[in-house]
Design a protein that fits this description.
120 residues; mainly beta; SH3 type barrels; six-stranded antiparallel β-sheet; three-stranded antiparallel β-sheet
Length: 120
């Protein structure tokens, strides 16, 4: 799963589908799900206790990672992603749409420079 906590994603399927970027709050790699801010909200009813007030709490539930795409700031939309190496051997996550259009489209650096992948 190439999506991490703190990334901006666009929901591409489901009731919350829109082209607005949302922040990833938590990832659950074992189940292939992630919790996205403001998406898939529901109410949890809580009983009052000694030190807590009762009421309705709004919580986000996990969304399947196949229903979101990483947000590309240069394209201003969700992006299909790929891996590219720089001349130094730095592994980067790139937007395929930007790469096709001739822009850099670097979304995130995945790994530090490795001389094995450096241009010769």
């Amino acid at each position: 799963m190439s999506i991490r906590k703190g990334d901006l994603v666009v929901v591409i399927a489901g009731d919350n589908r829109d082209n607005k970027p949302h922040k990833v709050l938590r990832t659950i790699p074992s189940k292939g799900k992630l919790v996205v801010e403001g998406v898939n909200r529901t109410y949890k009813h809580v009983r009052p206790g000694k030190n807590t007030q009762g009421g309705r709490l709004s919580v986000e539930l996990p969304v399947d990672c196949s229903n979101v795409q990483l947000y590309c700031a240069s394209c201003k939309k969700g992006a299909r992603t790929g891996v590219a190496y720089t001349a130094d051997g730095v592994k980067q996550l790139v937007c395929k749409g930007c790469k096709k259009a001739g822009r850099s489209g670097v979304l995130r650096v995945i790994a530090k420079a490795n001389p094995k992948y450096a241009a010769k």
